[in-house]
């Protein structure tokens, strides 16, 4: 494994920053303290900083010793999740109901370490923009930064992202061209019937039975309308209705999520859901309101950039440690918005099985969005070394 010696030496210092951020989690667009820590730390290393993109986003700009007209972006997310931490070790969350359960504190730390190395050495051509993004967890911070002018203020030829992946061995990476994360979409269906006594259902219009039939009918979209080679998920995660055993309620509400790897598939599913809802409710004499919200598009790696990342990673950890046939995840990631604007690639870095956690961790697994999760600090030198090599090699490549 080829790691930058300086970054290895900084591990205790960067780990302390990571754990401080973990202890003070902030939710989407509330990352005021975190952004301040990031900005002041970058400035202390002589890096030019721009604040306020996407409300709390931070961008640091590092110029190499020579300029070749090229620029590359490296992105980390900063926000935490609205959930209770189960860990009790020293750096556990100090804010009830808020937790870094997805490792964004670690992503921030890895990029900070890389930024310090690049700023101290500057032995590269061109410009590196380090992007610290707010509000990845469902609030579209990447799009907010773009809308505020990210790629206009900081033009770049490519942009890259990275996420820790529990269950993957430390020292391994996953990268694939094409889709790596799914789109994220939510829906709500409100069925309006006519309330009645449960013993006299003929006097009412039952929205419960309509909800039951609709819940099953919607699954036929995946099994009968979708191309089976194009993955998709329709999950009804909530059904709310009724208040008493002997009362047929006035209405029923279904909510859930849809995940796809292609916009074509998403169009098909949304249209079929609307049609099935309309006709099923009409057949059962109910009125229906159908709402479909497209939150994040699929995260689709550009093939050339994915191949380049794989080559860089192999030079650091070896061919056997880079999995180029990973199965994409039905989870979502708003880095997708950046990849729709600029070529780039998103990779996974193995976070291990959880045995790195300090005494006092929760009894649950070390999985993303779990109260017992904690980022593996052994990844800091590895992830930061990857960022440095990726940026340096990308900017040096004359074909880019």
UniProtKB/TrEMBL annotation:
List the Pfam families hit by this protein, alphabetically: M20_dimer, Peptidase_M20
Transmembrane region positions?
none
Superkingdom of the source species: Bacteria
Which terms under GO biological process does the entry name? Answer: diaminopimelate biosynthetic process
The entry's free-text remark on the cofactor is: The Mn(2+) ion enhances activity.
Domain Peptidase M20 dimerisation spans what residues?
186-279
Q: Which UniProt keywords are listed?
A: Hydrolase, Manganese, Metal-binding
Record-listed Mn(2+) binding positions: 102, 104, 137, 163, 369
Q: Which Gene Ontology terms cover its molecular function?
A: metal ion binding; N-acetyldiaminopimelate deacetylase activity
Family matches, as PANTHER family: METALLOPEPTIDASE, PUTATIVE (AFU_ORTHOLOGUE AFUA_6G09600)-RELATED, PEPTIDASE M20 FAMILY MEMBER
Protein known as: Amidohydrolase
């Amino acid at each position: 494994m080829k790691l930058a010696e300086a970054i290895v030496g900084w591990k205790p210092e960067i780990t302390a920053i990571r754990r401080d951020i973990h202890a003070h989690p902030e939710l989407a667009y509330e990352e005021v303290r975190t952004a301040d820590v990031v900005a002041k730390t970058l400035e202390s290393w002589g890096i030019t900083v721009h604040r306020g993109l996407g409300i709390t986003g931070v961008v640091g700009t590092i110029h190499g010793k020579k300029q070749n007209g090229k620029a590359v972006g490296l992105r980390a997310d900063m926000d935490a999740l609205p959930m209770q931490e189960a860990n009790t070790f020293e750096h556990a969350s100090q804010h009830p109901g808020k937790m870094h359960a997805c490792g964004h504190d670690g992503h921030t730390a890895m990029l900070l370490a890389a930024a310090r190395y690049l700023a101290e050495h500057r032995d590269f051509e061109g410009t590196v923009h380090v992007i610290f993004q707010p509000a990845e967890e469902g609030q579209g911070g990447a799009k907010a930064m773009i809308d505020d002018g990210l790629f206009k203020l900081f033009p770049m030829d490519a942009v890259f992202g990275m996420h820790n992946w529990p269950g993957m061995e430390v020292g391994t990476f996953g990268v694939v061209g094409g889709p790596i994360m799914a789109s994220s979409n939510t829906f709500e269906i409100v069925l309006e019937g006519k309330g009645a006594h449960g013993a006299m259902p003929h006097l009412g219009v039952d929205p419960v039975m309509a909800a039951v039939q609709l819940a099953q009918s919607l699954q036929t979209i995946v099994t009968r309308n979708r191309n089976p080679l194009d993955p998709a998920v329709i999950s009804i995660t909530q059904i709310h209705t009724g208040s008493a055993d002997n009362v047929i309620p006035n209405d029923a509400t279904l909510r859930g999520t849809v995940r796809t790897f292609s916009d074509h598939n998403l169009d098909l599913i949304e249209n079929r859901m609307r049609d099935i809802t309309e006709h099923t409710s009409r057949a059962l004499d109910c009125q229906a309101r159908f709402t479909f919200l497209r939150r994040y598009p699929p995260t689709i790696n550009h093939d050339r950039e994915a191949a380049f990342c794989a080559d860089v990673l192999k030079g650091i950890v070896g061919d056997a440690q880079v999995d180029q046939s990973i199965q994409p995840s039905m989870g979502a990631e708003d880095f997708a918005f950046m990849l729709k604007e600029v070529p780039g690639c998103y990779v996974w870095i193995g976070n291990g099985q959880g045995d790195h956690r300090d005494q006092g961790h929760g009894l649950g697994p070390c999985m993303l969005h779990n109260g017992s999760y904690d980022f593996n600090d052994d990844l800091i030198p590895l992830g930061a070394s990857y960022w440095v090599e990726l940026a340096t090699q990308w900017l040096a490549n004359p074909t880019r």
